[in-house]
Amino acid sequence: MSSHHFVRENQEPALFILAVDSLHAEVIGELLEWVPTVVATLEVLENLASQGIKIDALVTQTPLDQPFAEIADAQFPLTVINLEGRSQLVSGLEYLIQSGQKAVNIIGYDHRETPLLEPFLPQLDLVIFDGPLRYFPVKDPAFKKWMPGGSIQLHGQENSFVEVGTERENTVHQIQHATFVETEEGTIHFKSTGIFWVGEFFGSNLQG
Fold first, then answer.
1. In whole angstroms, what is the distance from residue 90 CA to residue 23 CA?
2. From CA 190, how far away is CA 164, in angstroms rounded?
3. DSSP letter (8 states) at residue 204
């Protein structure tokens, strides 16, 4: 982290890494510049350790088998979050809530499984990275955001409707399996009767 950044504890979004691919390596590197709390699963532990990435908490069944135990020991101090019959997702997010986190970036989460995230939305601001897209939830009936222009994906309950407004026009879109909308640079207004997610192709501005 550069010397001019002074970050209070839990101020920056935590980083919850479920899977890693070539698309996400740069994303992880940029998000780590903000020195977040990092939670990872056992499946990505070896990959992250090989890149010299320090994690703060590991979601897994205990006890750890070799060689994972040795890798985990090298990450000391490390909190081990025991699944105790819960999913990795639930275990990790509950730990972050209990730790006082208010926002989480989730890497390698299937956007088609966003309904599983909705119980956590009252307590956490969530952003997920899946493939080349970054998804954020729209929780309010009306929401506006400046966007750079290009293709965005609307994702939510099948056959629900989302109104997308720009300075020039308002259009209504019925959400299907993959609903992409072309937008121009500027403030985009969204309206819907339920929670939905907006996917945008991520670039260098990952904190927006």
1. 25
2. 5
3. S
